[in-house]
Amino acid sequence: MGRGRLRIHLGAAPGVGKTYAMLAEAHRRAERGTDCVIAFAQPHGRPRTEALLEGLEQIPYVERAHGRAVVAEMDLDAVLARRPRVALVDELAHTNAPGSRNAKRWQDVEELLAAGIDVLSTVNIQHLESLGDVVESITGVREPETVPDEVVRRADQVELVDMTPEALRRRMAHGNIHQPDEVDAALSNYFRPGNLTALRELALLWVADRVDAHLQRYRSEHQVSAIWGSRERIVVGLTGGPEGRTLIRRAARLAEKGAGGELLAVYISRSDGLTAASPKELAEQRTLAEDLGGSFHHVVGDDIPAALLAFARGANATQLVLGSSRRRTWQYVFGPGVGATVARDSGPDLDVHIVTHEEVARGRGLPGARGARLGRSRRAWGWAVGVGGPAVLAVLLDVVDLGLANDMLLFLTLTVAAALLGGLWPALASAAAGSLLLNYFHTPPLHTWSVADPRNIIAILIFVGVGASVASVVDLAARRTHQAARLRAESEILSFLAGNVLRGETGLEDLLERVRETFGMESAALLERAGDVEPWTCAGHAGRGRPVGRPEDADVEVPVGDHLALALTGRVPPAEDRRVLGAFAAQAAVVLDRRRLREQADRALALAEGNRIRTALLAAVSHDLRTPLAGIKAAVTSLRSADVEWSPADRAELLKGIEDGADRLDHLVGNLLDMSRLRTGTVTPLIREIDLDEVVPMALGGVPEAGVALDVPEALPMVAVDPGLLERAMANVIENAVKYSPAGLPVLVAASAHADRVEVRVVDRGPGVPDEAKDRIFEPFQRHGDAPRGAGVGLGLAVARGFAEVMGGTLNAEDTPGGGLTMTLTLRAAAKHREPVPAGPGAPPAPAEPERQPS
Fold first, then answer.
1. How many Cβ atoms from other residues are within 10 Å of residue 636's Cβ?
2. Where are the beta strands (DSSP E) in 444-573?
3. Rounded to the nearest 5°, which phi and psi values hold at 570?
4. 834, pLDDT greater than 50
């Protein structure tokens, strides 16, 4: 059986109706005879949603302990054993309770899909991992539960469940989302119109981008060249001149006017020179385009108008922005120019904007513009002047007699003009034709091919020699200039590659895309194989279509060693491009090696960290666990001994030793387990509002009363925390402070409110910690200074900081004035004591888990 299909109902905010839409879709499929079961659905007490649960088979949930609560989770094994055709799994970003097979629910869904089971699921836009910072800037809340974007992008279908902010707020006001006592807080916090509007825009744009990607793939697969104006996509054509910045800004303003507008800047270079513009200017224009939210593309094409239109149609552009021509008036005799040609050939589906600028009619003046080899149109003009010019001149001079010397100078002028325009061969043809016409029409005897005066023979030979010499010099200059321009372009490319090697900036796919664009190829792929007889595999690919299976199947093959090759499809480039292609291929091999070395280094780092943790754990077991165990065993052995009659006081002392050793073991094992949960990301806080004076005294259970002084005012605002995690974090911090505080100087635990935060400060008068070690003391298995073995394994502060951070707080160390160390624990104040910002992801604070958001 193949892989199952995933359909996701995506919403902008809780309450838009994702779960309702999912259940309705399941009923439609069930009516068609499809085997549908509910693997997990959360109706949140909404009557209309609960009504849709009827008529669908529901797999019983499994209950798991989560802190002090018992939560219901999807029974993955039961669903796999049942093997339905379609499984409904609500809340894709949910974090599973400890003890589950997978940490996240989307990982459970991956197992169902791999087993061939289709899945219907739901997710909110704020749960997408890449949008976490954006959502936090809008709502003021960092979403703790996320799902990788790629999981949602790989879905076979994504259905947007949409609702206007006004309608959603009416649903909230009518009690269809939260309980009546929570409505006012929700409407003034998370469900404010501005928040909902921004989240809705995020959801719409995300779905629109995914639809656009599907459209581009469809157009590529079906080779659709016509422009479909489904969205505004603006292409701006650049020449590399200073007017490009004006064009980019104008195109950006056009893109902003259309919803979802996209800006693409493109520079077309000729295939014989790679680039003819100022590299510095192009780099600045690339930066400007990217800063304005666009992208920059470098395309090769000898026919610039055709290449520009091909790029625009390939990108499905709706508008094309070009600058007014920089040609001078007399230069229009050579043709209409790029702008006029593009406007003429663009067709009715592509709008062309000609933008004026300060460089209009000032001439090209581009660096290297004279460095290209003589073009086709220029050679055509050279042949016309070299062949047709002498004939026209001969007819004119037959009417007006200027003398042989003047006639020869005029014919020589035509030869020089043909050389300047067309190069060597048109000039030689002009010299030959001119000499023959001079002989026939202007050298006595006239209208014969003979020459009476030997001096005229010498003059004609000099004429031919001068014409040939001028033509050869012009042609040689054109070739040398072309070679210089090409070498300059190659040096720029090689400099770019060398810079990327040093900086490590370009990824393999980015490099292959640059190869494809630079040389005008359809696709570029880096192929490799393990041995001479092993099959080829694709290490990286860019461009349209599937990569070729073997290097010999490509249009261009550039080997890199014995088992690596760069394969290009689309056209066969000239031989002189092979050198630059070889540099690109070598760079691609370096990038591939660097990526693999980085992966190996990451794995080695993870292994080294694991080895460090295991080594520290073994050291802890060898002493910190053995010491209390030895004390317990000795006390128990003494009590069981029949040889000694223990007094009641001695017996009480031995029992107290057993109790102290067991407490120490319990504390140590608890810290080890807590650190393992923090390392694996399975700590999910159950946030609720509570007074600090209810938690802090409970954290003093193992500390002598005389060792701590409390200053926690009753008027402090409530805090939004997980009481169990806060108690454990406070206990570890206070225990550490008491351990290092001198006898007779109690540790001060004081609390105060600051804006929307509450600070708890644990102040001791011990030896303190130097600044360079203040962060290190929060790392696992770190004991500052010469702390004795019996002082613990160095996990207490690491666990405390970890618990503080998962609750949205911080724990930092600073110096105590007069000596000692102060631990500052910063917590969030409860919502009703703060400015109207949401206190939890998607809902006002409530005793429920944060992942149980309404759908």
1. 15
2. 523-528, 537-543, 556-559, 564-569
3. 135, -50
4. no
Burial of 301 from C-beta contacts in 10 A (0-12 / 13-18 / 19+): middle
Q: Are strands 821-828 and 757-763 parallel, antiparallel or unpaired?
A: antiparallel
pLDDT tens profile 730-789 = 888 998 888 888 888 889 999 998 878 899 999 998 888 888 888 888 876 655 554 444
- What is the maximal distance between C-alpha atoms in the chain? 155
CA distance 517 to 543: 9
| Cα(340)–Cα(342) distance, integer angstroms | 6
DSSP state string for 577-630: GHHHHHHHHHHHHHHHHHHHHHHHHHHHHHHHHHHHHHHHHHHHIIIIIHHHHH
The CA-atom distances, in angstroms, between 776 and each of 418, 692, 801, 813 are 80, 28, 12, 10
Residues in the chain: 855
pTM: 0.39
Spatial distance between the Cα atoms of 733 and 761, rounded to a whole number of angstroms: 10
Of 212, 338, 359, which Cα lies nearest the Cα of 267? 338
**Is the model's pLDDT at 37 over the cut of 90?**
yes
Q: Which residues contact 307 (CB under 8 A, 6 or more apart)?
A: 268, 299, 300, 301, 520
- Mean pLDDT lowest among 350-359, 363-372, 540-549: 363-372
Q: Looking at 504-556, list the stretches that DSSP marks H as alpha helix, in order from N- to C-terminal side.
A: 508-518
Amino acid occupying residue 189? N
305 or 790, higher pLDDT: 305
Residues 6 or more apart whose Cβ sits within 8 Å of residue 49? 19, 20, 23, 43, 855
**Which residue, chain included where needed, has tokens 């387990």?**
673
Do the beta carbons of residue 28 and residue 190 sit within 8 Å? no
Please name the amino acid found at residue 352.
V
